[in-house]
Amino acid sequence: MRYHDGITAVIRSLGGGGAERVLATMLNYWAGHGVPVSLITTTLAEDHAYPLHQDVRCITIPPAKGGGSLDNCPWDVRHLRQAIMEERNRSVVSFMEKSNLPCILATAGEPVRLVIAERTDPRMQTEYSDYKKALIRKLYPLADALVVQTQSVEKWAHGFMSKDNVHVIRNMVTVDESITHSQLRLPENFICCMGRMTACKGLSGFIAQLPRLFAKHTDYSFVLLGEGPDRASLTAQVSSLGLTDKVFMPGFLPAPHSVLKKARVFVLPSVFEGFPNALIEAMAVGVAPVSFNCPSGPAEIIRQRENGILVAEQDYDALADSICTLLDAPQDCDRIAGNARAWAAMHYNLETVMGQWNGVCKLPLDDWALKKPLDSPPLLRSQGAKSVVWQARQPTRQDAHTLG
User: Fold this and answer.
1) Residue span of the structural domain in which 314 resides
2) Using alpha carbons only, how large is the chain's radius of gyration in Å?
3) Which of 103, 131, 236, 276 lies at a 20 to 30 A Cα distance from 348?
4) What is the pLDDT of residues 294-324, one digit of tens each?
């Protein structure tokens, strides 16, 4: 079977989340430069949370029954192998361990370059079983390259992979202020946080500090962007504190930048991060950030009191005090906000980051480097990226060669 220059991306779903937003941006970039691009997920294209370029070919493989065989990885490896082979793209990019592990097996023996990407800090994933941890250490070295987001996770990967095959690539920021969300009734002055409503984001601990913070700054409110399983408990906490009229939770916004830009301070109270996309998005629109120095990412982004403020992890009192310090010093807050915007523009711009991805994927840059992006813009999922629901076929002798 002959393969051609192109990209096949594999991820469980393209639902709302930082990793999903990054992958969608990458696929749109490649498709806009004429690169053949396919996306394989276990969910339908109409359920994707982010816009995709009209030339991205979307393939849906129904999830494996019973959660799959690789410790709750949702793929049937044989079906995934067939789908990758049918796309015939020479480069395969997989995001997150639930897709990385099956992709390593699915591409075994095929003349493709497999690049797997860790989007969290695996050291902090307490829900990983010993079996999954062993699979990661045994199978990840079989990939052609592993992309991580921080130097601390890079050191972890060096414990079982060749240093030449581990690459640190930060996330890009692409700001879209064209969607104004004018339907939202937001307060005039507010502190903002953005992230999935889960325990690892530390939201409950920060919300507990709001009465003290609002006592000092009565004209301020708190806006929390995002969705997640903890919404009900956080809503109940806000109500119990008597802050229903001071805390706004408008939900997940695919393009949040016009809202972020209106915030005076951005807060990141996370227990841990893989790489805090929300932090650099807030910096990119010129909002002063205050963040816990949690593993991993913030300390590699924030230069203390230059482009943000770092606070000892889990010290919620100090986090609230640092926010108050900025609100009490408008000129200092403006200076940090301006430096944050400049830092994000320099280090997390699209062309720089995609140049690194092109190198790791070993795309033939000479073929595409001089091509201008195509005029056709990304299309919203409601307008329909090309979508195919994949159907299994009878396995061939070639399929059975390595999976037999």
Assistant:
1) 190-347
2) 22
3) 103
4) 988 899 999 999 999 999 999 999 999 999 9
